[in-house]
Specification:
The chain is an alpha+beta fold. It has 16 helices and 37 strands. It has four domains: 101 residues, 3-Layer(aba) Sandwich (Rossmann fold); 70 residues, Dna Ligase, domain 1 (2-Layer Sandwich); 252 residues, D-amino Acid Aminotransferase, Chain A, domain 1, CATH 3.30.470; 82 residues, RNA polymerase II/Efflux pump adaptor protein, barrel-sandwich hybrid domain (OB fold (Dihydrolipoamide Acetyltransferase, E2P)), CATH 2.40.50. The chain is 25% helix and 30% strand. The longest helix has 17 residues.
């Protein structure tokens, strides 16, 4: 704290107190327990703070971009997500090997799993996250609802205990009406959320919700909520330090979604009164204080008819944090690191009402919009996953444009992780200026080798409901004309089909640490490595029976994507109806049902449970 002499208009002198951040000693090395764009984002924050970063990787991530941005990289020794990024023991073991004092979990994976914090604490390693007790309290949406009610914040009608059978769903629907939402108690991002419209769907919907939740978060517990069909999805960004200070940094609108996963976000919430904004921000702060929160977190709400309802709290950094950074000037990832090191918050939230402040006020200036660019083909509203080799990646630049990318040219987008390729953000002094600037930026973006949702983002920005701010969480599903999407001329190249050069970049491990080397190979060895060591998706069993080498018949069932068969719903000799479910393929952490193109008899099945298949693989043949 310093004293500043200021000359007043009447010539008198006044003594003011100028507040500055009290600097403390930070960490020397951070282990980043994540991958993709968020791992890169954390590595950049560490470098700006003069902190060394250590990345981790699985066998499916040997050539991942996040390894190039970190100072060091350590193997997790396996391929499957459950044995690597979802394995607390492996993460802590890597932190000990790296000599890191602290772990940053990013978002997803173990970021909302209290077991990581508990195990880290046992090994004298800090975690850039709330206390494990708070993660457990708010990580379960059931207990989080209880906290919200204690804080006096309205909640959507729902159950207070986990759902145990389809009968619970039917009884809830009778009492509160249909549709009913089955929601994973842990995690977020729309994973494990299934909407049930009729009692007949209850059993299969519960099975799917539990399966998705277990695959994404390692826990299959779920509960029920009344499903609001056309709300707005809003949220409050929270920061809280170890000294009792809690601040709502800003608010966001995340209503443009599909499959309950966000496609576009903006900050702040547009066209609401300052009184309503104050109520939303204050409720976010109240909830965080009630939960004894620490670090960065997001309070998510539903907004309808000028009323907001608590939805859940994400006890981590949020995917859409860049737009709050753009309108506030606060580096949220650096703030996470500083808070974990014991530093006090250096600002307070701006309030219109007169009250004494002990910190400078933070305000939201202008408007920022973020477009999530996913590796998916949105044609016809199907959003088919599109893993493969990225042959070209030109990201936009220019005034007030920010790109957080997880993949670059010549990188491979694997099929076993989520589909987020990059986030493109634009700031403007007004919402319209930000909208037009983001349209310009997306026009400068060029990706070849995989399908992306870039053109869909442009379509959303031009949607009249979005322009008029009348959009809801159902706009993408109900109000878009997908025929307006520009024709995708992407030159696709599936994983494993690229040509092999005689000079090869290889990843070499020594004592669990990764090094990149170049070697010259003869053709036979090069081909062997191209299909094995450097392949980003080593398969348990691969099915390559593609229709381009066969005579395609009316009853052929083929895979529109690369993925893994997680459910086989028919058998040879069975009679099926047109449109009947044949199998479910998991790709990029999404379940994709494959249906019969005709009615007839199943004569051949070419896949089995757990098989990895490529785009165009023949799944089954049906004789009409």
């Amino acid at each position: 704290m310093t004293k500043v002499i200021k000359t007043l208009p009447n010539g008198q002198l006044a003594l003011q107190t100028a507040f500055c951040r009290e600097r403390i000693a930070l960490f020397s090395k951070v282990l980043i327990a994540n991958r993709g764009e968020i791992a890169i984002r954390i590595a950049r924050a560490c470098r700006e703070l003069n902190i060394r970063s250590a990345a981790v990787y699985s066998e499916a991530d040997l050539d991942s971009a996040h390894l190039r941005f970190a100072d060091e990289a350590y193997s997790l020794g396996a391929k499957a997500t459950k044995d690597t990024y979802l394995n607390p023991e492996k993460i802590v073991e890597a932190a000990l090997k790296a000599g890191a004092e602290v772990i940053h979990p990013g978002y997803g994976f173990l970021s909302e799993n209290p077991s990581l914090g508990l195990l880290a604490k046992e090994n004298n390693i800090a975690l850039i996250a709330p206390n494990p007790e708070t993660i457990e309290l708010m990580g379960s949406k059931l207990s989080a609802r209880s906290v919200a009610m204690k804080a006096g914040i309205p909640v959507v009608p729902g159950t207070d205990t986990p759902v145990s059978s389809q009968h619970d769903i039917v009884d809830f629907g009778k009492e509160y009406g249909w549709p009913v939402a089955i929601k994973a108690s842990y995690g977020g991002g729309g994973r494990g959320l299934v909407v049930v419209y009729t009692p007949e769907e209850a059993a299969s919907a519960l099975e799917r919700a539990k399966r998705e939740a277990a695959a994404s978060f390692g826990l299959d517990e779920a509960y029920l909520e009344r499903y609001l069909e056309k709300p707005r999805h809003i949220e409050v960004q929270i920061l809280a330090d170890t000294h009792g200070n809690t601040v709502a940094v800003g608010d966001r609108d995340c209503s443009l979604q599909r499959r309950h996963q966000k496609l576009m976000e903006e900050a702040p919430i547009p066209f609401i009164s300052e009184e309503i904004r104050e109520s939303i921000l204050s409720d976010g702060e109240k909830l965080a204080k009630q939960a004894n929160y620490l670090g960065a977190g997001t309070v998510e709400m539903l907004y309808e008819d000028e009323k907001h309802y608590f939805l859940e709290m994400n006890t981590r950094i949020q995917v859409e944090h860049p737009i709050t950074e753009m309108v506030t000037g606060i580096d949220l990832v650096q703030a996470q690191i500083r808070i974990a090191a014991g530093e006090k918050l250096w600002f307070d939230r701006y309030r219109h009402r007169a009250e004494p402040r002990i910190h400078p006020a933070i305000r939201q200036y202008g408007h920022a919009i973020e477009a999530r660019i996913n590796a998916e083909d949105p044609s016809g509203g199907k959003f088919t996953p599109s893993p493969g080799l990225i042959k070209k990646a030109d990201y936009p630049t220019g005034p007030f444009v920010r790109v957080d990318a997880g993949y670059y040219q010549n990188d491979v987008m694997p099929g076993q992780f989520d589909s987020l390729l990059a986030k493109v953000c634009a700031w403007g002094s007004t919402r319209e200026e930000a909208r037009m600037r983001l349209l310009r930026a997306l026009g400068e973006m060029h990706i070849k080798g995989i399908h992306t949702t870039k053109e869909l983002s442009k379509l959303l920005l031009g949607n009249q409901d979005f322009i008029d701010n009348t959009h809801t969480t159902k706009t993408v599903e109900n109000s878009l004309d997908y025929t307006l999407l520009d024709t995708d001329t992407t030159d696709l190249e599936p994983i494993g089909e690229s040509e092999t050069d005689s000079i090869k970049d290889l990843s070499v491990e020594m004592d669990g640490r990764k090094y990149d080397v170049k070697i010259r190979l003869d053709n036979d060895l090069a081909n062997l490595i191209a299909g094995g060591v450097t392949s980003p998706a080593t398969k348990k069993k691969s099915v390559h029976k593609k229709t381009d080498s066969l005579q395609i018949t009316q009853g052929d069932v083929t895979s529109p994507m690369q993925g893994t068969v997680i459910s086989l719903n028919v058998s040879e000799g069975e009679t099926v109806a047109n449109g009947q479910l044949i199998c479910i393929i998991e790709a990029m952490k999404m379940e994709n049902p494959i249906h019969s193109p005709v009615a007839g008899k199943v004569t051949n099945i070419f896949v089995g449970m757990g098989d990895s298949i490529i785009q165009g693989s023949l799944i089954a043949q049906i004789e009409p």
